[in-house]
Structures are given as C-alpha cells and as structure tokens.
C-alpha cells in the first residue's frame, strides 16, 4: 500500500494479533481495548464492528483488509507483507480480527510470516465467534444431557464437497459452521448424505451480540430455504445438533422462570 510505512534501520515494532470477539465492544478483553486505544496502526478485518474501531485513537491509521466471498481486497500474502513492512518501519501494529485470531482467522499464517522476518509477535486471545454467538443466543454448545463433543468447521473453502465430515454431527455432538451462509445448500446436502437425519435441529445466529442479532431455527433439510427466506447475511454462524432445537430453548425459558419465582 502506498501509505504504509517503509522499513528503516532500528528495532522493529511488535505485531499484536488481537481478537475483537464476536462483535459487542463490551466483550473485548481489557488488554485488547488498551492496545486498540494506543495503536498508531490498526489493520482490521471487515467483520470487526465499527463500534470497536471507534475505540482507536483519532490519529491512528486504520487499514481495512476486508475479505468477502466474491472479492478479496488484499491477498493474504500481501497482508502478511504489510504487517512485516509496518513493523520493520518501527511501528507497533494491532492486527484486529473478529473472534479469536487463531480460530479461522489466519493468525497462524501471519504469526509465521512475522517470525520469519524477525518481527516480534504477541497474541491477544478473543472470545471466539462460535462461543460468543452461542452464549448470546443461550445455546449451550455442550450439555450433560445432549452434547459432550463440539466441532468447528469452515463452510466456505475449496473442496467443500470432498471434505470428510462424517461423525462431526449427530447424537451427543454439536457442529458449529463458520462462513456457511453462502454454501448452506451444499452443507445441508453433504450432512444428510453422510447420514445425518433431515430433522436434526439447526440454529442460524446472525450479527451475534450486536443490536440486530437474530436467532433463526429450522430442521437441517430446511436450512437453505431458511437462509434464502430470511435473507441471512454475514456475519452468521450455523449451529447443528440437539442443543440448537426449540425444545432446548423452551427448557431454558422454563428454568429461568423457576429461578425468577
């Protein structure tokens, strides 16, 4: 990028890989909020909520490297190079990612690139999108009565149909799918072809923890129709398993009423 700092002799800055959490600024860690407020350079993903970016210093340089299914504003290799170049110029960098940097955030690739260039790296964990979204929707990813195993998969990647998801969903298991809205039909067909029942409960959590959050439910076979009918947009997560069902939600409401009484 033309406006990015040029390398100069001296001690390099540190690249801080910072998790921005699921969206709500109140869910940032204390360290994350402090680093964002102090940073001179913030390199951020497109799903980072504007309210979090507003915490940055007014003089900070904010660089968006937003990605979408149809368009990548900057290839990953260029993002890596940008982080290295900025740090070698002597500036600390906050690399701000939705959720946690090391869960479908390519934080591992960026850390490796920085270390290879002799740039110090620090990782600030964030509440993962899956954990934050499920908690906000009051969906327990694990539950003694219904799920003791949780799996996270990416629903938007090359070779989706060839991937082996056998055993990731079903009795006693919860499957959380990141980036699965655009491929919901392929996901539904894939899981049913692998033997998952068409009536397995599914919850789609859109804009988790944010003011416009929605929790939409359907059986697995109805997932593509739900996404189309409700015009679901990213950021959204798909939770598949007994914990996502209406019956579980009704049980939670009943327990809440009992506690209130």
Supply the helix-strand structural class: alpha/beta
Number of helices: 8
| Low-pLDDT residue intervals, each spanning 5 or more residues | none
Rg, please? Answer: 20 Å
Q: Report the sheet-strand fraction.
A: 15-25%
User: Order of strands side by side in the largest beta sheet?
Assistant: 3-2-4-1-5
Helix content: 25-40%
End-to-end C-alpha gap: 60 Å
Number of strands: 10
Question: What is the approximate shape?
Answer: globular
Largest sheet: 5 strands, parallel
User: What are the secondary-structure elements, in order, as H or E?
Assistant: EHEHEHEHEHEEHEEHEH
Average residue pLDDT:
90
In short, what is this structure?
This protein is α/β, with parallel strands linked by helices. The protein has helices at residues 30-38, 50-53, 76-88, 107-116, 129-136, 184-193, 223-230, 246-260, and strands spanning 15-19, 41-44, 61-64, 93-97, 121-124, 147-154, 172-178, 201-206, 214-219, 236-240.
């Amino acid at each position: 990028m033309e406006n990015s700092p040029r390398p100069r002799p001296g001690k390099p800055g540190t690249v801080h890989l910072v998790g921005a959490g699921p969206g709500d600024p109140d869910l940032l860690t204390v360290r994350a909020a402090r680093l964002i407020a102090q940073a001179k350079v913030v390199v951020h993903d497109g799903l980072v909520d504007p309210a979090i970016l507003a915490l940055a210093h007014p003089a900070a340089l904010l660089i968006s490297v937003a990605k979408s299914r149809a368009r990548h504003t900057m290839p990953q290799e260029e993002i890596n190079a940008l982080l290295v170049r900025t740090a070698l110029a002597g500036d600390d960098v906050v690399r701000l990612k939705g959720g946690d940097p090391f869960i479908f955030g390519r934080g591992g690739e960026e850390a490796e690139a920085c270390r290879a260039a002799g740039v110090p790296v620090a990782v600030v964990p964030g509440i993962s999108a899956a954990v934050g979204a499920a908690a906000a929707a009051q969906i327990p990813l694990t539950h003694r009565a219904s799920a003791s195993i949780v799996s996270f998969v990416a629903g938007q990647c090359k070779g989706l149909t060839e991937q082996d998801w056998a055993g990731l969903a079903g009795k006693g298991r919860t499957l959380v799918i990141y980036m699965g809205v655009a491929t919901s039909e392929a996901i539904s067909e894939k899981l049913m072809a692998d033997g998952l029942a068409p009536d397995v409960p599914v919850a789609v959590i859109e804009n988790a923890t944010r003011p416009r959050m929605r929790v939409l439910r359907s059986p697995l076979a109805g997932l593509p129709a739900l996404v189309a009918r409700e015009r679901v947009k990213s950021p959204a997560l798909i939770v598949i398993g007994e914990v996502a069902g209406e019956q579980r939600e009704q049980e939670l409401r009943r327990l809440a009423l009992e506690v209130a009484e």
